[in-house]
Design a protein that fits this description.
The protein is α/β, with parallel strands linked by helices. The chain has helices spanning about 50-55, 85-95, 110-120, 135-145, 145-150, 155-160, 165-180, 185-195, 200-210, 240-245, 265, 270-280, and strands spanning about 5-15, 20-25, 35, 60-65, 100-105, 125-130, 225-230, 250-255. The protein has one domain (about 5-280): Rossmann fold. The protein contains 12 helices and 8 strands. The protein has an 8-stranded mixed β-sheet, sandwiched between helices.
C-alpha cells in the first residue's frame, strides 16, 4: 500500500486579509514536527515522498498549500503576497496546530519564506532545512553580482508582467509550466498545472514574484540550519549557495546533491529526508 498524507484544513485570522483557510497534508508520526513549504509552481503534494521517509524515523510533517495555492486563501492584490505576510501565515498555522516550537523546511519560494520565518522567529523555529534557495541576502547578492545567476533568473522579468506572464504560462495548454517542471513525475506535473489553470490561481502564485523587493532586508538566521542545493539546478547557481554560510549565525551545513535537478523534493526525496532528519536530530529538545 502506498503512503498517503492525510488532508485537512486550518482557518486562521490574518491582519491583511481576514480569515483564510489553508489546505494541509499531514503524516501521522507523532514525534518532532516539521512544517514544509512548497515552491512555484508546486504544492503540498511535493513533500509526500519526504514525509513517508521521515515518518519511518518517527518525524511528523505538515505540508501546507500556501497563500494563493489554497483556494480559500487567495486574496486579490499583490500587496497580500509580500514575504513578511507569507511568513506570518506560517506562524498563524503553527499556532492553530498547537505547535509552539517546530522544525521548518521549504523548497524554492517556500525556502525563501522559511528563511524569513526562521530569521524573525528563532523562538518558534527550532531548525531550518532550506532547499535550493539560500538566504535571501545571499541570493540577492548573487543576482546582482554574478552574471551566471542573473542569466538563470531572467525568467523573473516575464513573471513580473501582469497579464503577460499569465498569458505566456497558460498558452498552448500551459506548455511553459509543464516544461518548467522538467523531470518532475508526470502525475505530479498534471496535478500542479491543473490547479494553476483554475481562475485566479496563477495570478496569485505570480504575485509572490511581483511582490519581490517590497519587504525589509532579512537578518541573519540564528537557528541550526542546513541548505540542500543541487548542482543540476537550472535556477540557482553555485555562487548563491556558497554565499549562504555568511548569513547563518548558528551551526550550518551545506548538502550538495550531484546531478539532481531543481525539483529536489520529488527527485531526491531520500537524501533530502536524511538531511532534514539529521538537522532535526541536531536540535536540543523543545
Amino acid at each position: 500500500m502506498s503512503f498517503a498524507l492525510s488532508p485537512s484544513t486550518v482557518t486562521v485570522a490574518t491582519e491583511d486579509a481576514g480569515e483564510l483557510s489553508f489546505d494541509l497534508l499531514r503524516s501521522d508520526a507523532d514525534g518532532p514536527q516539521v512544517i514544509a513549504l512548497h515552491g512555484f509552481p508546486q504544492g503540498a503534494r511535493a513533500w509526500t515522498g519526504v514525509a513517508e521517509l521521515l515518518a519511518g524515523q518517527g518525524i511528523g510533517l505538515v505540508a501546507v498549500d500556501q497563500r494563493g495555492y489554497s483556494p480559500s486563501a487567495r486574496p486579490e492584490g499583490v500587496e497580500h503576497y509580500g514575504d513578511r505576510i507569507l511568513s506570518a501565515d506560517v506562524i498563524a498555522i503553527a499556532d492553530a496546530l498547537g505547535l509552539d516550537r517546530f522544525h521548518l523546511t521549504g523548497h524554492d519560494w517556500g525556502s525563501h519564506v522559511a528563511w524569513v520565518t526562521a530569521a524573525a522567529h528563532p523562538d518558534r523555529v527550532q531548525t531550518l532545512t532550506a532547499v535550493s534557495i539560500p538566504h535571501p541576502t545571499a541570493f540577492s547578492r548573487a543576482f546582482r553580482e554574478d552574471p551566471d545567476q542573473a542569466r538563470r533568473s531572467e525568467y523573473f522579468r516575464l513573471f513580473w508582467q501582469p497579464g503577460v506572464g499569465e498569458q505566456t504560462l497558460l498558452a498552448d495548454d500551459a506548455r511553459y509550466l509543464y516544461d518548467a517542471l522538467d523531470d518532475v513525475p508526470p502525475e505530479d506535473k498534471k496535478h500542479y498545472v491543473t490547479r494553476l489553470q483554475q481562475p485566479g490561481a496563477l495570478t496569485a502564485a505570480l504575485s509572490w514574484y511581483r511582490a519581490m523587493g517590497s519587504g525589509s532586508p532579512v537578518g541573519p538566521v540564528t537557528v541550526p540550519t542546513t541548505l540542500v542545493w543541487s548542482d543540476g539546478d537550472r535556477a540557482v547557481g553555485r555562487t548563491a549557495a556558497a554565499l549562504c554560510a555568511q548569513y547563518v549565525e548558528a551551526d550550518y551545513r551545506l548538502v550538495e546533491l550531484a546531478g539532481v535537478s531543481h525539483w529536489i523534493p520529488e527527485r531526491a526525496a531520500e537524501p533530502l529526508a536524511d538531511a532534514i532528519a539529521a538537522r532535526v536530530g541536531s536540535a536540543a529538545p523543545a
